[in-house]
Amino acid sequence: MDMSQYLEIFMDESKEHLQHMNQILLELEKTPEDLNLINEIFRIAHTIKGMSGTMGFTKVATLTHEMENVLHLVRNKEFPVTSVIIDVIFECFDTLDNQITAIENSGAENSSDSSALVNKLIQIINTKGVSSGGEPVVETPKAAAKVEAVATGGAGDFNIEIGQAQEHVIQKANEQGLNAIKVKIVLSNSCMLKAARAFIVFNTLEQFGEVIGSYPIAEEIEDEKFDESFEVLYVTKLDEKTTENEIMNISEIDAVITELVVLGDKVIEDKEVSLEEVLDIVSERTVDVPQVAAKTEKKKKKEKPLKLLELILIA
User: Which phi and psi (to 5°) does residue 180 adopt?
Assistant: First the structure.
């Protein structure tokens, strides 16, 4: 999916958020016990993480993700704000500011390595806010065994259910030469912005068809309440293999499993209803229709322009 159309919006909002963060950090130096300031920095980091993840700026997304982890623990009063924490957050601000400037100038993040700064944030978490003076402790990545098991689970390893409304859509789709496909998407273990990645998957699928259901439901996908994989029920002009290839072109996807849905001899009534009308009914009545899917061009013309945060999922 081409996200370049959102780059200007991303830049404007990121610079605005960073300016606000700088002001709050200066206040935090004076009153480190003020949790309202921590809450505001957390909100800014969370926002920038979601935007940058969706835009594909992984260095910014990774850094803000670890900032968020530290700030979350402070908000929960698991350890107080120390001078060490404030200094590291200032470093984060400087790094983010440099990256946003690089993106503005070239459209891409610069080549600087922020892994040392990320490790400082991880060390703060592991030492409960106290500087240990030693080497940062880096968590071992999760084993890939579970992902491999899902990826090789076969066609029967689906959790998504097909309701009556979806059956009606599938019948109408079949009558018009379209396919109904169950699709399981397995994310990489290294994917930290699962909701943003799911958003890109939905938008990619919407270029070739219609998503008419998901597992888990859309709200849980938006809140990242799933493990390595999620599923969709998809009506499309594509076949299973082409659908798999389109999704595998997206980064941080480990595997895609598809299964063609066949209703057999089951006949759904009201054949005079068009496919478009049935899709509208499903969109209105089915709770698990993903709302993260891209709006149609017709709907876009009726709506006022949205801010970037209203166009993406915040992870």
Answer: -110, 125
